[in-house]
């Protein structure tokens, strides 16, 4: 693949931006698209392009090469390229402009995990805290009543269930049980989740991204098992959080139930301008 990266291509559009073409050629020369990988080719390509956007090699308003050009350089099919670009578009990283092409956009801003679709892991890290995630449960199992209802699972459906304690600067802050629809994450139980954000795993291994989330908050007293893991007395006041995150097709992707200890970190919510 590397040797072919600079070959002359059939039907290459004359208006390809040279800088973005150079980036695609670098991806080809590095051989990051591997057919031997368990990760689908389109997910590999999407992640490679997202990385280039993240480090500003592909800058906002830069036009990407045509699908056919990318396909020939990377020796993949056009449907692979189209699926990768569609996923990037769903994430808001590129925009398709009719009769003009596909352009890099500004990444979507992310704020607090309590008021947006970022994870607690990512949000605390972004704020400069040392974050640790300790798993106490990781299994594929039959869904409970809530999981079956939220994911609309058939009687023989499964879920991946992950229980984690998140620590912020060594202090337990959140007791979380995360559920994922089993049919969307095949063989996830074999993935190493140690120290990794679940959203990052969904994106990297399955090309799935949470686009929005709905969350509900109630006051709660710590059950005995939760209290032990959060290192607080049983009955300690906590905030109970229930959340459903949705993918690019507005289908439920992640369901989690959590207990949050606001003694460790206060909840911060920003609002826009008020109007009468």
What report would you give on this structure?
The protein has helices at 18-30, 41-54, 67-74, 78-90, 120-126, 145-151, 198-206, 224-230, and strands at 94-97, 101-104, 131-141, 159-168, 171-181, 212-221, 237-246, 252-260. The chain has 276 residues and is α+β, with helices and mostly antiparallel strands. It has two domains: 18-104, Winged helix-like DNA-binding domain superfamily/Winged helix DNA-binding domain (Arc Repressor Mutant, subunit A), CATH 1.10.10; 120-260, Chorismate lyase (3-Layer(aba) Sandwich), CATH 3.40.1410.10. The strands form two sheets. A six-stranded antiparallel β-sheet has the order 3-4-5-8-7-6. Strand 1 (94-97) and strand 2 (101-104) form a beta hairpin. The N and C termini lie far apart (61 Å). Keywords: DNA-binding, Transcription, Transcription regulation.
DSSP helix count?
A: 8
Lateral arrangement of strands in the main beta sheet: 3-4-5-8-7-6
* Sequence stretches where pLDDT stays below 50 over 5 or more residues: 1-16, 108-118
What is the CATH level 1 assignment of the largest domain?
Alpha Beta
Helix content: 25-40%
Q: Tell me which CATH architecture of the largest domain applies here.
A: 3-Layer(aba) Sandwich
Sum up the overall morphology in one term: elongated
In CATH terms, what is the fold-level topology of the largest domain?
Chorismate lyase
Strand content: 25-35%
Instruction: Give the CATH superfamily of the largest domain.
Output: Chorismate lyase-like
- For the record, the count of structural domains works out to 2
The major sheet is characterized as: 6 strands, antiparallel
How far the N terminus sits from the C terminus, by CA atoms, comes to 61 Å
Tally the beta strands.
Answer: 8
- SSE string: HHHHEEHEHEEHEHEE
Determine the structural class based on helices, strands and strand pairing. Answer: alpha+beta
- Taking all Cα atoms into account, the compactness measure Rg is 21 Å
Which whole number gives the mean pLDDT?
83
GO molecular function, one term: DNA binding
Keywords: DNA-binding, Transcription, Transcription regulation
Domain HTH gntR-type: 39-107
Pfam families: GntR, UTRA
